[in-house]
TrEMBL record:
The chain crosses the membrane at residues 84-102, 108-128, 160-181. One of its GO terms (cellular component) is membrane. Keywords: Membrane, Transmembrane, Transmembrane helix. Pfam families: CCB3_YggT. This is YggT family protein. It comes from the Bacteria.
Length: 191
C-alpha cells in the first residue's frame, strides 16, 4: 500500500508543481518586467489570466508584485499539503498547514531560481540565438539577481556571479526554509 501512496504523492506533487510554475512565472515575469511580446510570456499570461483577473479586482498589485498570483501559488501549495496529509490519514493543525505551505512556496521559488540560473548559465556558454524566447525570458528573470554582482566576481574571463547567487539561494533553503518546514511540521502534527 505504501507504493501506491508514494505514486499518488508523486503525481500530486507533479500536478501542483506544474500549476504553481505557471503562477510563479507570472509573478516573477511581472516583477522583473519581462518582455510581454515574448511568446512564453503570452502563454503564461493567457493561461493564468482567467484565474487572476477576478482575484486582481479584490487584491490589486503592490508595486510590481502581483499579489493575486502570489496568493494563488500559496493556495496551490496549501491544497497540495492538505491533500498529502489526507493521503496519509492525518488531520494537520491549521497553523502548521499554513506555515508548511508558506515554506513550500518559498522553497519552490528558490529551487525554481536555482534551476533557472543554472540553465541560463549553461545556455550562455554555448552559441545560442539571443532572440530565442526561452533565453530572453530566462535572462530577464535572472538579471535582477545577478546585476548586483555582475563584473565583481570575474576571474580569468569567467563571471562567477551565477555561482555566488546559487550559493546564496542554497543557504536560504538551509537557513530559512528548513527551519520553517521543521516548525510547520511540528505545528501540523501537534508535537
Amino acid at each position: 500500500m505504501s507504493y501506491l501512496l508514494s505514486a499518488l504523492s508523486f503525481l500530486l506533487e507533479l500536478a501542483f508543481s506544474a500549476l504553481a510554475t505557471l503562477f510563479v512565472l507570472r509573478l516573477l515575469a511581472e516583477a522583473c518586467r519581462a518582455d510581454f511580446n515574448n511568446p512564453l510570456s503570452q502563454f503564461v499570461y493567457r493561461y493564468t489570466n482567467p484565474v487572476l483577473a477576478p482575484a486582481r479586482r479584490v487584491l490589486p498589485n503592490w508595486r510590481r508584485i502581483n499579489l493575486a498570483a502570489l496568493l494563488v501559488a500559496w493556495l496551490l501549495m496549501l491544497l497540495k499539503r492538505a491533500m498529502l496529509f489526507a493521503l496519509l490519514g492525518i488531520l494537520p493543525g491549521v497553523a502548521g498547514l499554513l506555515l508548511l505551505s508558506l515554506a513550500d512556496l518559498l522553497d519552490f521559488v528558490l529551487v525554481f531560481y536555482l534551476v533557472l540560473i543554472f540553465a541560463w548559465s549553461l545556455m550562455s556558454m554555448f552559441q545560442v540565438d539571443r532572440r530565442q524566447p526561452v533565453l530572453r525570458l530566462m535572462g530577464s528573470l535572472v538579471e535582477p539577481l545577478l546585476r548586483p554582482l555582475r563584473g565583481k566576481l570575474v576571474i580569468g574571463g569567467l563571471d562567477f556571479s551565477p555561482w555566488a547567487v546559487m550559493i546564496v539561494l542554497m543557504l536560504l533553503r538551509l537557513l530559512v526554509v528548513a527551519p520553517l518546514t521543521h516548525v510547520g511540521t511540528a505545528l501540523a502534527l501537534g508535537m
